[in-house]
Design brief:
The complex is a heterodimer of chains A (52) and B (379). Chain A has 52 residues and is mostly helical. Chain A is built from two helices and no strands. Chain B is an all-alpha fold. Chain B starts with a helix and ends with a helix. The chains are: A mainly alpha (52), B mainly alpha (379). The interface between A and B is large, with 33 and 47 residues.
Chain lengths: 52, 379
């Protein structure tokens, strides 16, 4: 493979692939946050167990 | 008898006789690295063993990097087989707090442009005459993180390990110096003064625990060739979030990370033999590495400006510069720059989110690139 093709491929697939991967992960985080919402008593429980 | 005494004395000057002009230069460079680490506080944990290793290997006839040499044994045991950077990555995973990132997943995207410099630098290195694999290894300096640079260089361009690692670790510590001018150049005063509000706690412990697992599986499936890097950083973070293996997390971020950092540093320093190191190629690699990090910062800021435009003023473009892997230095730089123009500006938590996004982004970028190389049949 010549250097021009290689360079362009690396830029296009690299930038596209890493951005798509992070986009997918950010969507998954959103889903996780919806499935397992934060409960305000979590900290309280943590503190209690910490004391034990 | 006199002859024997003469021969005996001549043994004491053998080292001087074998001194190549490049050795004193490299010993001076080793001393500069020690100075930067000790006096200036630039990544001392790495620059001190690297600097000392560079001095050791440039003293002729010591044989420390020869077959039975003690540094060669360390080098073979942990650098050649990519073990040391991976062990360090477990410790980094333990030290990383993905909380601010999980609070605002949109910021995760800033981790991608914060690593675009890697890809542009690959193209530049190709244009300068480096081979395809060498160019990729040089581009990875733009990941702004030592372990990925060591990991990739060892795998695809081991002869460039010395300059690549020195560039990666020394530039990482220079983030507070080279980022602010780029930030000022690419943002307006009004943008720098923008506030982003406070980060509300909205992430459950289950989400924090599942994040490293999910990231490992998804990232690993997309770019399996980088799974070792992604898997180790996420293992460290998973252990920390689980709270069930405190002895292991403590060992990973303290004892293991410290021992491995020492061994890795001295081994890398020992690759800096003047006869091999002092070439035009090394100067080009150092220049390209610096450019890669500047390009990362610039593309992060420009991308953050775009998000700011789309979200109608909700993102301060300064945090785009934190989308690189230098954690938590880059986040602190964004915070300081924000406060310099608006004392009421508290960007730190947002910048930390972008910074951890950059940490994951750099691993993903490297993993994607390794998978592309595999797809092309180059590795």
């Amino acid at each position: 493979m010549d250097n021009l093709t290689f360079g362009v491929t690396i830029i296009v697939v690299g930038i596209g692939g890493s951005t798509a991967c992070l986009l997918l992960l950010s969507l998954v985080i959103g889903i996780l946050k919806k499935l397992f919402p934060y409960k305000h008593d979590e900290d309280k429980k943590g503190m209690e167990s910490g004391r034990c | 008898m006199l002859e024997a005494i003469g021969i005996g004395f001549s043994g004491l000057i053998e080292g001087f006789l074998h001194l190549h002009w490049s050795n004193p230069v490299m010993i001076a460079i080793g001393c500069i690295l020690l100075y930067l680490g000790i006096k200036k506080g630039f990544e001392p944990l790495l620059l001190v063993p690297i600097g000392f290793g560079a001095i050791l290997v440039n003293i002729p006839l010591g044989g420390l990097m020869e077959e039975e040499g003690f540094i060669r044994i360390i080098y073979e045991a942990g650098v050649v087989n990519e073990l040391f950077p991976l062990l360090i990555f477990i410790g980094i995973g333990v030290m990383c707090d993905f909380g601010p990132l999980l609070e605002n997943p949109k910021i995760f995207l800033l981790g991608a442009p914060g690593n675009f410099g890697i890809f542009f630098t690959v193209a530049l290195a190709l244009a300068l005459g480096f081979t395809q694999l060498e160019s990729v290894a040089i581009g990875v300096v733009g990941a702004c993180d030592g372990p990925p640079a060591v990991y990739v260089a060892t795998r695809i361009a081991p002869h460039l390990l010395g300059p690549i690692t020195v560039a990666a670790y020394s530039y990482m510590s220079l983030v507070p110096m080279f980022q602010p001018p780029i930030m000022r150049l690419l943002t307006t005063k009004k943008e720098r003064m923008m506030t982003m509000g406070t980060v509300k706690k909205s992430v459950s412990k289950t989400t924090k625990l599942l994040f490293p697992l999910v990231t490992t599986v998804i990232g690993g499936l997309i770019a399996p060739k980088g799974l070792a890097l992604l898997g180790t950083i996420m293992l460290g973070n998973f252990m920390k979030e689980s709270g069930a293996v405190k002895r292991l997390t403590s060992a990973s971020e303290n004892e293991i990370a410290n021992v491995v950092t020492l061994l890795l540093g001295i081994s890398i320093g020992a690759t800096m033999d003047g006869r091999i190191f002092l070439t035009t190629q090394t100067i080009l690699i150092l220049a390209l590495g610096f450019l890669a990090m500047c390009l990362d910062t610039a593309s992060g800021i420009i991308f953050a400006k775009l998000i700011n435009l789309v979200t109608k003023g909700k993102i301060n473009p300064l945090i785009g510069a934190a989308g690189i892997s230098a954690y938590p230095m880059a986040a602190r730089v964004a915070q300081r720059q924000g406060q310099r123009y608006n004392p009421k500006n508290h960007l730190l938590m947002h910048a930390l989110g972008a910074n951890t996004g950059g940490q994951v982004g750099s691993v993903i970028s490297v993993a994607v690139m390794l998978s592309v190389l595999t797809g092309m049949g180059l590795i």
